[in-house]
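dumping these here so i dont lose them again. two proteins, back to back, each one seq then structure tokens. dont judge the mess
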Amino acid sequence: MDPRGLLAAIESALVARGLGRPMPELMISAADLAAGIAAVAAKFLAVGTPRTLGLVCTGDLASQIVAAQSAYAAPRELRVFDANPVAAARVAEQLNGRVVSLSQACAADIVVARGPVSLRREWFRPGTHVTALDPGVICDPRLLAAAVVYNDGPAPDGVAIHASLAAVVAGLVDGRQLDELTVLLLAPAEPSLP
């Protein structure tokens, strides 16, 4: 499925979920679903014209994430961090990005992170959108307190969730308003939306 078709299918499924309607069955891989949801989230929760994309420990999902993000907006700079320097170099070379420190990857307009990794509040500026792809992404409580937090699955205990991504995509709740820091917490990727 081409990236635009993938994202249209995911948006359609999220709208159905947000409106409480039966959802179409998505026959896509867990990797495509995660990349697609991250891109849809960026469409609604990131700044209007993102210039930078930070990939944090995304490894084998990196190319799918970049392809999905590029269907809506093509950030001019790709920043890649991985705890394994060889993996970071491979992703950066494959996708024409550059290897940076974790804090530099987090200083992007859009950040997509996969665990295991810990994200600290001071690495993010207002206007950044962060998608945490799995529970292995540990967000500093100060980061979550400073951000407008959305979810697409169960919320961690003690985290104030503003709305679900489905509610935003369905138009029931506004997405980004100004230059706030936004965070989307995803449940582990499944082959289809629950």
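---- next one ----
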Amino acid sequence: MSAATALLGDSPQRDYARKLRLFNAFAAPELRAALADIGLKPGMRVLEAGCGCGETLGWLAATVGAEGLAVGCDLSAAHALAARGQAAGAAVLQADLLRMPLRAASFDAVVSINTVNHLRDPLAGVRQLKTLLCGGGRLVLGQSSFLPDMYFAWDARLERLTNEAVRRYYRERYELDERQLTAVRALLGLLQRAGLQQPSVRSLLIERIAPLKPADEAYLLEAIFRGSWGERLRSYLSAADFAALRRLCDPGDEAYALRRPDFHFLQSFTLAVGRVAP
């Protein structure tokens, strides 16, 4: 997507490869299980729109095999470069999702995970992806966190205030309103409005409890506690609440959340699938 169509500041120069790698390592069991059910077979042609650093693209390439074709596309030049090294057997393009240099009706399946929420006009993106599908092809949209994530099972109040602070930060940082941040939840409606047939939706939970595996702690600590929260939330919380949050997010503090024996994390992940006419 171009700067004009990006909702969250994306550009060819933007690089959040570390966060993407952390999430894919963290959620790999659930993501792989979900993608295994979308009906890909050896010999098929599949595109991942918004392929990030290529972990998911590598799984898709392995599924369609050498007799098939796997292509990835990402706006970020850094992500496309990383994906070329990660996704063996796949071709990778650095391009705008709305202007990909690909022929219409070229793919049996198009997969796009945590991507259409970065567009100012998600419906335009879905319609563009639909044009790339051949007769009977499937469009698979994945999205994390339709439901509020649970981080502090023992403190719903601080969790709620933290989530509200994050939303306020994004609204002010990118000059958005609440509707722009929540409209992406309507994946089913996007598929219907784009004219895709037989739309279906399935959600699953990514669930972790103490003791955490290293990949789980790395994602939650680096991508969430430090990357999504951290100092930038100070002005959106009271001094007491920010101090409490800092203690829970500090590995050197005895209150550190990720080493509590009662730590229990929940995050939803949703796949919406639609077909084009045969």
